[in-house]
Amino acid sequence: MDAVQVSKPFRILKLPYVALRNIIMHLDQLEVLDFSFISKKCRSIIKSTKFVNFTVKLNMQTARCPFAFVRERKTICEFSTENLKIRNRYMNGGRIALSQYSNEGEGICIECAQIWADYICDIFRADIDTLDLEPNQSVEKMISIAEWLNKRQSSLRCCYFYGTETNSDSLDRFFETADFSIQKLVLQLNQTYKISPLSHKILNVNCLWASSKNWRYPIDWVTVEHILASNCVTLWIEASSFDEGDLNRFIKGWLNGNNPTMEFFHVIVKRLDPDLLFDGIRYEKKDNSLIRNYDCKAVGVQYEFKGGFDIRRSDGRVATLQQETHLQNP
Amino acid sequence: MSCEEPTTSPTPENNITVVSSDGKEFLLDLKLTEQSETLARLISNFEYDRTDVKKDPVPLGNITSAQMQKIIEWLQHHRYYPKWEQNDIHYSTSFTFETWVEEYLNIPNNEMFELLNAANYLNIPRLFSTICRIMASRITGKSAEQIRTVLNIKTDVKNDVYTGIPIQEDSSSSEDGMSEISLSPSPPPI
């Protein structure tokens, strides 16, 4: 087809909108971004185009690709720091210094990420769906990110913090500053030092997934007090320092009406003594032949209860407790 | 995909006559018109598929005889293809085409533009979508400047984003005050 002599340009902007939209829909997100840079009219065409569903993920970690477009859990397109750098001249009048983009070992700077995120979300008429952050950012940066998000959107579906260094003051300030709601919070904090319990606001979410891969420094930054006061629907805590007494308090709290919206609680702890765990708690032991399933969509796990212990509270709600033993993780 | 079947000549019972904007008549097999939602609806509304109904010629005021000839070629090639289903989630960003399609659409831009408008007017979804994909393939992988050059779109950004220097307005760039397209081959200001 390249053999055709292009005598006149294709008058794309003269096409009926339905045709122009169809052409745009065949472009990937990076090409759409480029199309939006052609002119203000092109940008306005892009903004008036309803794209097929995808979500925008912003990664402020040390990532090669700060922006990803996700559909049905699959990344369909990514914008790398390099992609953004070569388009820097379009953004904010080219006033972002190229040195502010990723340097060796560092992620995109917050100012760049914010300017780009605002533009990308504007042209695709989407909010940021998922935000990945370093847990060791400075307090000032965390406050700046939270304040920026407060202005730009009322909710965030997913917020991930993961890293081997954690600044608990920064995390606290982030959650104290944040006015936007978070549906799912993932705290994968693998620091090898003790940190103080985090702000209670970390439990103002539908789903909390907290994990530490290091048994020498288990999760003691989420306490029973946190959990008793939370309205989480799903709680998943890995490598927790909870003992029988902590979990006994939690179970009794639930029986007394705490955690009214909770549907699923999963915790990995050291081996427990069932007598201490159920001290003062009435339960009904179910036969192992009774299989009950729970689809925990928030963490993408199909959970199978074999038998277990049923507990019932005064309003009639029943919960099933099951203890699994993994010898490699006592 | 290819569906080669022996072609049948239209007979008075199974065809209609369409008239292009320049007055040329085309005898069109009713089977072919099924690919055009506009024609199919018209045939259904006027019961042209009945043998006892007088089939007045259908004027197609927006289609020239050259375009109609090109469209009939498309309809005949796709005569036995299954009905086209456009699904929003299946917009493809990979661009491969049948050899026949590549040859068929190896035409100048202005003809492609008119053909796309005709496909839109007659609502021939397979042709419409194919031309849109071809056009998308010409944009894909190009920078904003390259797209500007290929499509000859003049920027309407007041300040050059490179230098911050105001861009001189080109008064000849628009035909109706809205358009940013010019048929002149002069490159856009960079």
UniProtKB/TrEMBL annotation, chain A:
It holds the Pfam family FBA_2. InterPro entries: F-box_dom, F-box_Sdz-33. Coiled coil: none annotated. It comes from the Eukaryota. Residues 9-54 form the F-box domain. PANTHER family: F-BOX ASSOCIATED DOMAIN-CONTAINING PROTEIN-RELATED, F-BOX-CONTAINING HYPOTHETICAL PROTEIN C.ELEGANS. This is F-box domain-containing protein. It comes from Caenorhabditis remanei (Caenorhabditis vulgaris). The lineage of its organism: Eukaryota, Metazoa, Ecdysozoa, Nematoda, Chromadorea.
From TrEMBL, chain B:
This is Skp1-related protein. Residues 126-157 form the SKP1 component dimerisation domain. One of its GO terms (biological process) is ubiquitin-dependent protein catabolic process. PANTHER family: SKP1. Residues 15-79 form the SKP1 component POZ domain. Belongs to the SKP1 family. Pfam families: Skp1, Skp1_POZ. Keywords: Ubl conjugation pathway. The keyword Zinc does not apply. Residues 166-190 are annotated as: Disordered. It comes from Caenorhabditis remanei (Caenorhabditis vulgaris). InterPro entries: SKP1, SKP1-like, SKP1-like_dim_sf, SKP1/BTB/POZ_sf, Skp1_comp_dimer, Skp1_comp_POZ. Residues 169-184 have a biased composition (Low complexity). SMART domains: Skp1.
